[in-house]
Amino acid sequence: MILNDIADRIFRGVETVQDGVHEALFEPVIRLGVTGLSRAGKTVFITSLVANLLDRGRMPQFGPGTAITAAYLQPQPDDTVPRFDYESHLSALSGPEPHWPESTRAVSELRLSFKIRPAGLLGGLTGLRTVHLDIVDYPGEWLLDLGLMEKSYAEWSAEALEAAGARSEGASFLEALAAVDATEKHAEPVAKTLSQSFTAYLQSARANGYSDCTPGRFLLPGELDGSPVLTFAPLPAGEAPRGSLHREFERRFEAYKREVVKPFFRDHFSRIDRQIVLVDALGAIHAGPKAVEDLRRTMADILAAFRPGRVGRIMSLLGQHKVEKILFAATKADHIHHSQHPRLTAIMEAMLREARDRADFAGASTMAMSLAALRATVEETMEHEGQSLDVVRGTTETGKQAAFYPGELPEDPSHILSPARKGADKWLDGSYEVMKFRPAKLTLRPGEGPPHIRLDRAAEFLIGDKL
């Protein structure tokens, strides 16, 4: 096994060097990883980003826009990875009856190529150059699995059981766990029942706004559904004889790391240059202080995946090179009035600062912002009980027009983060509501992509310098 790993690392190292030389001398490639946590709108983000890079009329803060003479889609370089279905997703958003596209449930990829006129005196000598943007789309739950690589089954079990005990969604699983003697001989029906109960708890926790719900493949099993490698659950620590349920679950946990987590990061994650993590911060705030604290910890775990040092040695084993920039973006900014956008951004920036400290992070350039990849609302001011309220108006899921006031975010982020750190059950000085809107009907002029909020700033941070 060790010799195989060494040979695999050498082969991939040579392959990476060859690719790097080709890219540096001929046509550079930017590999952008896009992932999202708990329904953050990853598919919509990629679709709108590509549409707005193809037609840049709504991208004034994207610096390279004027230097790009052409942008076009090309076949992706990896024939073994599903293509991101850009055309179908754009059709869903821009058709006569617009609707949100289906979420992608596995890794996908899309290549967008640019013809760029170099600036300065050399521009007239060198002519146009080609730069490729490879967008790698993958579930956020799978990114969090990297943290499992450096944990034993006992360590993971202790953390998972503590989280389940702090969440109301974990009650049924803990009840099922209490009825099981893990020192008894392994029986597959018992293992399956306990695993299904644990999976149901993770699904419920994610639906209610929690971000840290690992192992990620329990939520998106794909072709592994029903396999032994996904049939385990956390168990309390203790001595267990050979052949017991506890020993079998421990073996399957190690198999999950070896056969599921490691290949994903080796094959799909290891060559990413830039990374964006989409976050439904408004949804977490609506869910309450515990969900916000869970999001803050999850952001720290994500940063830990990129830091040098102990995790860096794991990443080296997986063939990972340095990720240069990471953007944490609070999505659905169109669900609140623009006057509250600075407050949402400040909350994200505060969570990112704390995540940096907790992860002992020193490495890639990081940034936090709020955005809406596709604007689904318009803004209004309404009179209510003698007061003027800044609201947003959009089409609800029932097809009706509605004005919505979600509540006022605090100017000081500590009013959100402090109760979250203390484990408060609810907000004491306010309530923050969310509403689901359908996408608005689009009327696009030539050269314009879909309407958005700060998508151009996100693109500038992530890839502007490379173009």
From TrEMBL:
It comes from the Bacteria. InterPro entries: YcjX-like. This is YcjX-like protein. It comes from Celeribacter neptunius.
